[in-house]
Amino acid sequence: MKNDRKEKEKEKKIPLEERIIFALDVPTADAARELVEALDGRIRFFKVGLQLFLAGGWPVVEHIASRGNRVMLDLKLYDIPATVRLAVEQFRDRGITFATVHGYRPVVEAALEADSGVKILAVTVLTSMGSQELAELNFGGTVEELVLTRARRVLDVGCHGLVCSAREASMLRHELGRKFDMVTPGIRPADSDAGDQQRIATPGRAIGDGSDYLVIGRPIRDASAPLEMVSRIQKEIATALEPQQD
Ligand SMILES: O=C(O)c1cc(=O)[nH]c(=O)n1[C@@H]1O[C@H](COP(=O)(O)O)[C@@H](O)[C@H]1O
């Protein structure tokens, strides 16, 4: 791809501390604050999902941002376009970098219309889903086909980025290039438990295949030594980036 080199140059500018987006999946604002304070020397990107947002609301988002961190607000919006646009307008000036919506074109268009200053990420197919779940929903094709169709349709209308599994990362980069942010959850360091995730990948593979950011929750949150786990994952990320830097 012609612009590949330029885009890779851009990619290198993401600091290592922002490559992991740590999922603050905890039940209280206090628990979130403790984790942020323990980790934010090392991780500078945090995800606030439904559980924490319902527990802590905007003060917790603003607290994380006020410490100089980036925030991904993961509410996975899905509603009629007018409602989505009005909700996304609420994201303005809150210190949020990324917000998630479902990867359905009218929803994405409405989120972009809000012009909130926040980058909109479209969730393609949840990493907890596999071919069996798609069959149950009556989708004819493969997971990869559905991810690619959804990705194409939302990027065509200007969506800033995608949430997908790292298993699709290399296919998406090959088909769609590098001009969008790729955020991949379902990351599991070797020998950690997959839990409810089906489409998983190691940090090294995810980065090597073209992910920009890795959403990681339980492997760090539940580690016996979370900071050691962060170091191990960041080392793996740095190694995976090395061949791209020559
Ligand atoms: O949008 C997300 O962040 C997301 C999309 C997806 O397809 N799969 C997925 O796991 N996530 C989120 O990523 C995080 C993954 O957490 P762990 O499985 O604990 O690493 C959770 O907070 C999920 O809500």
Strand order of the largest sheet: 1-2-3-4-5-6-7-8
CATH architecture: Alpha-Beta Barrel
Give the helix proportion (percent range): 40-55%
Named once each, the bound ligands are: orotidine-5'-monophosphate
* Largest sheet report: 8 strands, parallel, barrel
Structure class: alpha/beta
State the shape: globular
CATH fold-level label: TIM Barrel
Using the CA coordinates, give the radius of gyration: 17 Å
Tell me, rounded to a whole number, the average pLDDT.
Answer: 94
What is the percentage of strand-forming residues? 15-25%
How would you explain this protein's 3D organization?
By secondary structure, the chain is an alpha/beta fold. The chain has one domain: Aldolase class I (TIM Barrel, Alpha-Beta Barrel), CATH 3.20.20. Helices cover 44% and strands 15% of the residues. The chain has 11 helices and 8 strands. It has an 8-stranded parallel β-barrel, surrounded by 4 helices. Helix 2 (29-39) packs across helix 3, helix 4 packs parallel to helix 5 and helix 7 (143-156) packs across helix 8 (169-176). It is globular. The protein starts with a helix and ends in a 5-residue tail after the last helix. 39% of the residues are buried. The structure holds orotidine-5'-monophosphate. It is an enzyme of class 4 (lyase). Pfam families: OMPdecase. Homodimer. This is Orotidine 5'-phosphate decarboxylase.
